[in-house]
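Title: Comparing notes on inverse folding

I've been comparing how different people in this forum approach sequence design from structure. To keep things fair, I'm posting one structure and asking everyone to reply with a full sequence. Here's the target:
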């Protein structure tokens, strides 16, 4: 098949959020730490009524309904998540409830886990299926979803929650570029979840930032090398209309775009550098591995990459800024945000670079091309037309109520039997919620 890629995307975020300015006051930190220092405005969160199964049920059902896709048209469903409710039974099998009525049980795929990277692993697997001899002409669905919650302390404001469902097939309007993707993987304890009883990770904040930035360097270099070798193309930031990152918090993404500029400076010739960035000539000899926390360097790069950030990346941070880190869904929420920031005619022909990072660590860089001609692009964009309204129409919750909700989740996580106490009043119609957990830990869901 040709032009394998994305036909439709659905995003779901919880209806409740806490305001980061109010959270700064509540947490007793200096004003601006979360909003300016981290670049976050709102943080979405779930009560005990929602879990990873319900988030994924909601987003897949909404995708199918909105685009009027028959359940028999799906041949593969794969879920990327690090929100683990069960060490054996996959979220994918829970999603099979949606397919029951259609009688379609012939569906490949299960769950994939590595921190925020599982969605990308699922995407690559599903693309491979579409390009393989096993492909039977049907679509694949990739679901990336997580509930990101941290213990009280420095990391708490970098939580979030949400899920994205992606419909993949041939002759798509958003095409994954072939032969051009690069990964970096290594063994490190930057962020991990060794306590299976708790939703909270162990996190070494500073190390995780260093790992993220170094994986970004490595992926960009490997991506550029492949483009040069395979297509004789020299990659710089100018090669892309959009650059979309996994967003733990928005400020890190702005620094990451600046970091790619640094990578460009190193490969540009002195002549080009003098013409384009005369103020940055001295940075050409920078040793990447010694520069992660170099303040002066960072300040210069941020100032000089401002225009690039505004034109290629800023728009992709809408969901990240308004919801927070959705872990596996974050980079795809970034893609959605980028797509809804432009008119269809502006998007045509765009090339979008994606950087996906999962602690531990596994990271990849890859790229999409927006078809210049496909008549299916309008359907994809039409499906996203209510995203900003949905983000704007959520319910703000007091930080003290948010903290109480976190306590309830802590105390009742994995409890059985259990009947959730969270209200379903605020939920949008069509949202799945947890009705009960029986004494055998079996979960029942309802749809509002
Ligand atoms: N006004 C403006 N800026 C402020 C203010 C203020 N009042 N106060 C602090 N800041 C700035 C700081 O200068 C700092 O800026 P910098 O990053 O440019 O140095 C920023 O706000 C954050 O402040 P710190 O004191 O450095 O933050 P802290 O140690 O409290 O924690 C961290 C930040 C490490 C990101 C923490 O939230 C965390 O651990 N998060 C989870 C881990 C994470 O997301 N890692 C990223 C990759 S891995 C992943 O995706 C999970």
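Reply #1:
Here's my take.
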């Amino acid at each position: 098949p040709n032009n394998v890629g994305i036909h439709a995307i659905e995003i779901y975020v919880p209806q409740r959020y806490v305001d980061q300015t109010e959270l700064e006051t509540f947490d007793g930190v200096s004003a601006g730490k979360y909003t300016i220092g981290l670049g976050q405005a709102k943080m979405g969160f779930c009560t005990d009524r929602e879990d990873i199964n319900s988030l994924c049920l909601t987003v897949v059902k909404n995708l199918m309904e909105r685009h009027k896709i028959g359940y028999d048209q799906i041949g593969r469903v794969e879920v990327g998540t690090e929100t683990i409710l069960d060490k054996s039974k996959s979220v994918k099998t829970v999603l099979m409830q949606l397919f029951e009525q259609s009688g379609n049980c012939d569906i490949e795929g299960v769950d994939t886990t590595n921190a925020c990277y599982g969605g990308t692993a699922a995407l690559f697997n599903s693309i491979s299926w579409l390009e393989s001899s096993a492909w039977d002409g049907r679509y694949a669905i990739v679901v990336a979803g997580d509930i990101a919650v941290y213990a009280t302390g420095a990391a708490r404001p970098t939580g979030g929650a949400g899920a994205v469902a992606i419909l993949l097939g041939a002759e798509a309007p958003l095409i994954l570029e072939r032969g051009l993707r690069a990964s970096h993987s290594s063994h490190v304890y930057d962020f991990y979840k060794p306590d299976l009883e708790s939703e909270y990770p162990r996190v070494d904040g500073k190390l995780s930032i260093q790992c993220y930035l170094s994986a970004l360097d490595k992926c960009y270099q490997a991506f550029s090398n492949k483009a040069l070798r395979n297509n004789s193309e020299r990659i710089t930031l100018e090669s892309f209309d959009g650059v979309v990152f996994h967003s733990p918090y928005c400020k890190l993404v702005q620094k990451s775009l600046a970091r790619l500029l640094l990578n460009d400076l190193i490969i540009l010739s002195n002549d080009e550098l003098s013409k384009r960035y005369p103020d940055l000539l001295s940075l050409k000899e920078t040793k990447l591995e010694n520069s992660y926390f170099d303040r002066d360097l960072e300040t210069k790069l941020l100032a000089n990459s401002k225009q690039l950030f505004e034109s290629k990346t800023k728009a992709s941070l809408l969901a990240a800024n308004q919801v927070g880190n959705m872990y596996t869904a974050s980079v795809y929420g970034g893609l959605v945000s980028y797509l809804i920031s432009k008119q269809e005619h502006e998007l045509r022909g765009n090339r979008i670079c994606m950087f996906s990072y999962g602690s531990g660590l596994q990271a990849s860089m890859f790229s999409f091309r927006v078809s210049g001609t496909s008549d299916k692009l309008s359907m994809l964009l039409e499906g996203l037309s209510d995203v900003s309204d949905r983000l704007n129409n959520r319910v703000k919750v007091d930080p003290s109520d948010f903290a109480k909700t976190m306590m309830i989740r802590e105390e009742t996580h994995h409890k059985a039997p259990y009947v959730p106490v969270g209200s379903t009043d605020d939920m949008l119609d069509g949202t799945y919620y947890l009705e009960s957990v029986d004494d055998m830990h079996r979960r029942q869901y309802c749809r509002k």
